[in-house]
Every structure is written in C-alpha cells, then in structure tokens.
Specification:
With 111 residues, the chain is α+β, with helices and mostly antiparallel strands. It has one domain (8-106): HesB-like domain (Hypothetical Protein Aq_1857, Chain: A), CATH 2.60.300.12. It has 2 helices and 9 strands; from the N terminus they run βαββββαββββ. The chain has helices at 11-24, 70-76; strands spanning 8-9, 29-37, 41-48, 57-61, 64-68, 80-86, 89-95, 101-102, 108-110. Strands 4-5-2-3-9-8 form a 6-stranded mixed sheet.
C-alpha cells in the first residue's frame, strides 16, 4: 500500500461513503478506477472495496479511505474526489488536473 497523497477525498465525499458503507454493512473504502470508454475516452468508476491492494495509493479523510490502483493513478494523479448535490442529482465528482477535457455528465474525460 502506497501511503502518499497523490489523491484527495473531501469531507463531503467521506461522509457520503461512510453512509453508503454503513447501509451495506461494508468497510468505508471507496475505490476509484479508470476504464477506457465514455464520451471522452476514459471514464471514472466508483465502488466500495473490501480492502486495499499492495499497489494502491490511499487517501484518508474522517476515517474513510479512497483507494486507487497504480494503473489508474497515472491518469488521476493530483485529483480530488468530492460529493456534490444539485438540482440535477447527487454524485461523486472527480476534479482531475490532468484532464484536458471532459463531458457534460462529468463521468468521462480525455488526457
């Protein structure tokens, strides 16, 4: 497990992950990964994780962990994961300084 801080989790996102994990009886660990696809070339994927892997980068906020595998980390280095609520709905949002462009839905990006 890499305990550096190349990624960040906001308090709002940590609160939401903790609530979801509690409802599902799981650990408060959010995994962020990047897959090919989406409107702009890459897309973010979120899911609760049972634990961490040896090559994961880990950020922690209020007892909640955000984990990113080493391959995905290359594409989200320096990113911040937030949870936002608006008239359009509620969702996790990635503020990724490496993304050259994104799509309107906010779930895909291009480098």
């Amino acid at each position: 497990m890499i305990s550096i801080h190349p990624i960040a989790l906001t308090p709002a996102a940590a609160t939401r992950v903790a609530a979801i994990a509690a409802k599902q009886g799981k650990a408060a660990i959010l995994r962020l990964s990047v897959d090919g696809g989406g409107c702009s070339g890459f897309q973010y994927k979120f899911g609760l994780a049972d634990g961490t892997e040896p090559d994961d980068a880990v950020a922690e906020c209020d007892g909640v962990r955000l984990v990113v595998d080493s391959v995905s980390l290359d594409l989200v280095q320096g990113a911040r994961v937030d949870f936002v609520e608006s008239l359009g709905g509620a969702a996790f949002r990635v503020d990724n300084p490496q993304a050259a462009s994104g799509c309107g839905c906010g779930s895909s990006f291009a480098i």
